[in-house]
Amino acid sequence: MSDLIAPRVFCIGTHHKTGTLWMRSVFRKLAAWMKVGERVVYPSVTGKVIPDRERMFLFSWSSTFRSAILDLPEVRILHVIRDPRDVLLSGYRYHQHAPQRGEDFLHQPRADLDGQTYQQHLNALPTEVDKMLFEMGEKHAKTLDEMLAWDYGRPNAIEVRYEDLIADVTCDGFREHLRNLGLTEPEVSRGGDIFWGNALFGGLAKPEDRVARVAAHVASGQAAQWRTKMPRPVAEAYAEAHGDALVALGYETHPSDWVEEVRHAA
């Protein structure tokens, strides 16, 4: 990217189950090493969040930054998405046991669920298919809406797929993303090291090296898990409900042809 104004504010945006914990660890550690500020920006935050001259990182784990931030000439953005079908699988697994910290929506009694919480209702469903279909219509639908609502034409944004990150075992791709954000070469080098140290193919390859929160979030981290782990009835329902979204996000060229690739036993 060629810029008239040097970037100094780096917005990192992800979505639920798209590598958020990974990116949070990487960029918070990088910010600490760079000795610059970092802050999570929630949609409800309306006050001033960017200092006048200092460099800093801003995070949104739902990619719902205000346009007033994203449109500033000194802002650069790294935005991460993931194959929605794998987001569904990861979400339904994690939501069955996720603790309340950071996941309040799972633990609030709901009148529409006869007083049960999201997690209680999910765990009470009789089959894997039932659980996935419930997840599909709930948190997953909201996450997918957020991914679709993002402006993919922003000239100051770097669009990244989780599938590319998890395959970036040399970290060369991630280092290039950091260069495009506007970081210096020493920062790029350090950022690549931190990326590898927090990757499932790198410093966290051994389960015993993962802290409890990472272990709770992660099953395998592999790409295209839907081909072998998504039951055929769920795949068919997904194609009907969200096939167009897969096409819009560039993960498929047809809303439903991919269903024939599913090899789940169910």
In total, how many domains does the architecture comprise?
2
How many strands appear in the DSSP assignment? 5
| Overall pLDDT confidence | 92
**Multimerization status:** single chain
Structural class: alpha/beta
Question: Treating each run of at least 4 consecutive H or I residues as one helix, how many helices?
Answer: 12
Q: Return residue spans where pLDDT drops below 50 for at least 5 consecutive residues.
A: none
Give the N-terminus to C-terminus distance in angstroms. Answer: 47 Å
Which sequence of SSEs, written as H and E, runs from N to C?
A: EHEEHEHHHHEHHHHHH
Cα radius of gyration in angstroms: 19 Å
Give the amount of beta strand, in percent: 5-15%
Largest sheet geometry: 5 strands, parallel
**Percent helix range:** 40-55%
Indicate the overall shape. globular
Q: What order do the strands of the largest sheet run in, or round the barrel if closed?
A: 2-3-1-4-5
Outline of this structure?
The chain is of the alpha/beta class and about 270 residues long. Helices cover about 40% and strands about 10% of the residues. Helix 3 (about 85-95) packs across helix 5 and helix 5 (about 130-135) runs parallel beside helix 12.
